Amino acid sequence: MAGGRVRLLQALDTELTADSVEWCPLEGCRRLLACGTYQLRKPEGRPADAAGEREPDVDEPQVREGRLLLYRAGEDDSACPLAEVHRRDTAAILDMKWCHIPVSGHALLGLAEASGSIQLLRLVGSEKSSYVLQPVSSLALEEQCLALSLDWSTGKTRRASDQPLNIISSDSKGQLHLLMVNEAGHGLQKVASWQAHRYEAWIAAFNYWQTEIVYSGGDDGLLKGWDTRKPGTSLFSSERHSMGVCSIQSSPHREFILATGSYDEHILLWDTRNMQQPFSDTPVQGGVWRLKWHPFHHHLLLAACTHNGFRILDCQKVTEKQEVTVLLSHTSPNSLVYGADWSWLLSPSLQPVPSRSSLHGDPGARMANMIHSLKVADESPAPSLECVLDDNGEGHATLQSGVKPAPALLSLTEGSSKSATAAKTCDCELCVEGANCDISLLATCSFYDHILHLWKWEVN
Predict the structure, then answer these.
(1) Rounded distance between C-alpha atoms, residue 265 and residue 241, angstroms
(2) With bands split at pLDDT 50, 70 and 90, how would you rate the model's confidence at 80?
(3) Average pLDDT of 198-219?
């Protein structure tokens, strides 16, 4: 497969530093995009002395605050592809995920917060500009910790009728927490907790094909596997990454495929049947904070690479011993990309893809120090910025004086491609035959310039 180009459709000022973006995967809600922010406020200091000067109290903890923003994608050639429909002030948000199945007829969004809690919010409303995310449950993981990540056990949109609805979460003390969701009342119940890493457990994720198995990555540089039926008993421990492991995602399309990323600036692909060595190692020149498999193109992997922007990888031939191809590399100056996600919408008319189912130490301080060591831009993003990049992420940008209609896009539907592995392939989503499948929408957010970007990516 050849490379591609990316076009920036919209840049939005999130006001606070943004570190997480998630498109809703549920039918009827796929126009919705959630964005989470994390802001570390310096203490105000002690009362002024006689000279009117203030001295900071070094023992006073810094305040971590956040905001949850909900956007709705517009129809067709809307002048504003994304419009804010709801906002809610929260504790600082480290991670968030939508549940891939409706719960009691509602979409659920889970937040991992700096308060040390996992919070569930229910989406209410169906009319334009009337969506609200209502808190329905919250559970504190541990005292004096930060909740760093979470993952739902429903990464594949189908699950067995007897399979419980679970969440796995990790915290700043290196612990993992298995939670069960009461589907009737949306309540959270802790099933088990155990010490997984010596330092911060940056990430925890389910094996979507065998949800009793979870994986974790920590600041100790270890990638570990666990069987939740025997909490605390490690299935394996890998030192293959040379620095902290901060991103993991099981492929929802191909069984046995696992992607991991690290501060060591490498993305590794694994066969979960043999975790001694990865079968692919791709350097991306940036710490890999998040990894996202495309919801329909089984071979595409999106990576948020912090100071080196984002990457789109083609993993089509990787199981045939061919190298992973970097289809797109995009880097913006003065930007730390922490959040990235693929849209579940067709482009450009933004129509949902048909499916068989329908909607019935202190990591916060480290992140803040990195931010404050850089010069924060004073200017807000331009109301409209069009940027076209070539295969290598290089190109030109044109600043517009006002908002203009988004460029016309070709229609997108999923085209099927044979998996390069003999493993099972999830068939939960159907493609529309005979349509162009080479255009996708995606969103990224950057941490210290507080910008949410909406992109159109087209394969050559």
Answers:
(1) 9
(2) confident
(3) 97
pTM: 0.81
Three-state secondary structure of 257-312: EEEEEECCCEEEEEECCECCCCCEEEECCCCCCEEEECCCCCCEEEEECECCCEEE
| C-alpha–C-alpha distance, residues 25 and 17, integer Å | 24
User: Nearest to residue 294, comparing CAs of 314, 320, 308, 265?
Assistant: 314
DSSP conformation class of 434 = T
Looking up tokens 């009728």 gives 161
Q: Is the dihedral of CA 228, 231, 234, 239 positive or negative?
A: positive
Strand partners, 51: none
Q: Is 320 helix (H, G, I), strand (E, B) or coil?
A: helix
Apex 179 CA angle, 191 and 293, nearest 5: 140
Q: Which residues contact 25 (CB under 8 A, 6 or more apart)?
A: 98, 100, 157, 295, 344
pLDDT tens digits for 20-64? 999 999 999 999 999 999 999 877 654 444 444 445 555 667 899
Contact (CB, 8 A) for 122 and 182: no
First-residue to last-residue Cα distance in the chain: 8
Choose among 280, 372, 386, 380: nearest CA to 323.
280
E-strand spans in 186-233? 188-195, 203-206, 213-217, 223-227
Residue 424 neighbours by CB distance under 10 Å: 12
Closest CA to 335 of 249, 449, 248, 250: 449
H-helix or E-strand spanning residue 399:
strand 395-399
Q: Give the single-character DSSP code of 137.
A: E
Q: Annotate 43-77 with b (16+ C-beta within 10 A) or e (fewer).
A: eeeeeeeeeeeeeeeeeeeeebbbbbbbbbbbeee
Q: How far, in Å, CA of 314 to CA of 312, rounded?
A: 7
8-state DSSP, 315? -
DSSP notation for 32-63: EEEEEE-EEEPP--SPP-TTS-----TTSPPE
